[in-house]
Amino acid sequence: MAILHPAQVTPSKIELVQSWAPQQPFFKGDVAAELSVIASFRYDDPQGEVGIETLIVRVPEGELLHVPVTYRGAPLEGGEPWLIGTMEHSVLGSRWVYDAAGDPVYIAEIASAAFSGATEVDQFVNVDGVLVPKASTAHAVGTGAVVRTFAVPSPGSVSTSFDGRATVVEAGDLRLAIVRRISEQTTEALRGYRPEGAEAHSIIATWDGQDRPFRLAEVWER
């Protein structure tokens, strides 16, 4: 489960994404457009060190972006290419926010969820020591059915590239294709990344106002 804290966060998540996303190769449209988060879900770092959140971000005129991020209490070794920015959290202190595609903890957790058929984790807000449930605004599930737990790859093994359709991640023996612009065409195109004969599984998600599942990520082993 994910435990959240009532807190002041400066700058806010969307402010960081607002400054970062228009600079990315997957972004199309007005770079000055005001973005908004319409839904999100979380995964859990078993070590309790890294926050893992997926943001569904709306661009004016309707386009949706898939922006998974991680939150860390210290810089990720070798993580400069994926650094979105830093924020000050009134409870947790300084937080380093990364594009999760380059974060080894996210890679291991998304792979484990995809192969195991796991869902997003339940969220609770710690209010004066009492854990209050927080409803998710999005739901995700892996397409696999056999529990797998993947080890966290070494930071030096991670590389990413955007090929016009998805961010392709290489991390040791793991391979991921992560949709950035959400549409029927881009999410269905993920099937094309599966090597012939390889076992591959997906993360599919729905959110408030979107009952038809979209495929957000494809995972396989080299």
From TrEMBL:
One Pfam family from the record: Mak_N_cap
Entry-linked InterPro entries: Mak_N_cap
Superkingdom, natural source: Bacteria
Keywords on record: ATP-binding, Kinase, Nucleotide-binding, Transferase
GO MF assignments: ATP binding; kinase activity
Boundaries of every Maltokinase N-terminal cap domain copy: 20-103
Keyword Glycosyltransferase among record annotations: no
Key word Transferase present: yes
UniProt-recorded name of the protein: Maltokinase N-terminal cap domain-containing protein
